Amino acid sequence: MNTVVKTIFLSALLGLSACATDDVSPQDLSERELYDRAQQSLDDMRFDTAVKRFQLLEARFPFGPYAEQAQLEIIYAHLRSIEPEAAIAAADRFIRLHPQSPNLDYAYYMKGLANYTEGDGFLDQFMPTDMTERDPGSALKAFEDFRQLLYRFPDSSYAPDARARMVYLRNRLARYEINVANYYFKRKAYVAAANRGRYVVENYSQTPAVADGLAVMIQAYMLLGLDDLAENSLKVLASNHPKHPSLDKKGRFIPKFTLEDEEGSTINKLTLGLFDRADPPKFDNRPDYMIR
After folding, report:
1. How far is residue 151's CA from residue 148's CA, in Å, rounded to a whole number?
2. Do the beta carbons of residue 90 and residue 103 sit within 8 Å?
3. Parent domain of 123
4. How big is the CA angle at 185 (ends 179 and 191), to the nearest 5 degrees?
5. Across 38-115, where does the E strand assignment appear?
6. What is the per-residue burial (b if ≥16 Cβ within 10 Å, else e) of 179-200?
7. 30, 78, 138, 226: least surrounded by Cβ within 10 Å?
8. Domain Outer membrane lipoprotein BamD-like: where (predicted)?
């Protein structure tokens, strides 16, 4: 019984000792001690606590040897806690305060990652999501962040990953334009659809969406009665993408929608468009990598 009591007593003393250590006022800690505590919180995945401790370190020792590193760790902690906007703000602050820092490439890279992930929902981790249907704002910003990184630091250790992400983003942005063109087909806005297709061809060359961009142009020009433009676009599509699903074996375009479809069948007219309605054109021929 005495042994048990002694054990409990010693355990209580050790617990009180640990509490006493944790209860030391931050004002009494050195810069290194503050940094170590913040880093421990980061290692324990207590990201909110880590941010607060790194911010305290920076406030107490703004010109100390750990201040700059603390700012970088804050960017990382915000990103790990799925707070992309806070991570972007922290990265922008670092870039503004330390334009000559040897770690500037890291700040640009992390800012790009934050924009890259912004808009991703919790469920996106567990189910396929068509990212090309999302608003492209964050994707455009991420692309620019990575572009800045490659332009300013082409030999950075983060450059290969940034370059790979830019390829994905470019494909995603091109496909977004095709989705918009498909929407315009639904609205019978054929000029707008043709313009979107041409934009993909002119601005996103070497992406898989270019073939669909040409098909969009052909279909829209046919519906607009612009046969010469449709024929020119068809020549380019047949020459560069002869196996595109919109072409038959002889390289002729297979229209998904005609002027007769637009006018509607007799049944469609009699039912005021309720029945026998022709589906509008939709072009979506892409590899699986666009879905994640």
Report:
1. 5
2. no
3. 25-157
4. 105
5. none
6. bbbbebbeeeebebbbbbbbbb
7. 30
8. 28-233
Check: pTM over 0.85? Answer yes or no. Answer: no
Work out the mean pLDDT of the chain and round it to a whole number.
84
CA–CA dist 114, 141 (Å, integer): 10
Cα dist. 237→1, 123, 234 in Å?
89, 38, 5
CB 207 within 8 A of CB 243: no
Check: CB of residue 174 under 8 Å from CB of residue 210. Answer: yes
Asked if residue 264 has pLDDT above 60, the reply is no
CATH number at residue 45: 1.25.40.10
Q: Quick one: pLDDT band at residue 256, thresholds 50, 70, 90?
A: confident
Residues 128 and 220 in one domain: no
The domain boundary residue, chosen from 96, 123, 157: 157
Contact between residue 200 and residue 174 where contact means Cβ atoms under 8 Å apart: yes
- 62 domain residue, yes or no: yes
Examine residue 243 and state whether it is found in any structural domain, yes or no: yes
Instruction: Please report whether residue 4 resides in a domain.
Output: no
Phi, psi dihedral angles at 127 (to 5 degrees): -140, 150
Distance separating alpha carbons of residues 27 and 70, to the nearest angstrom? 17
167 lies in a domain? no
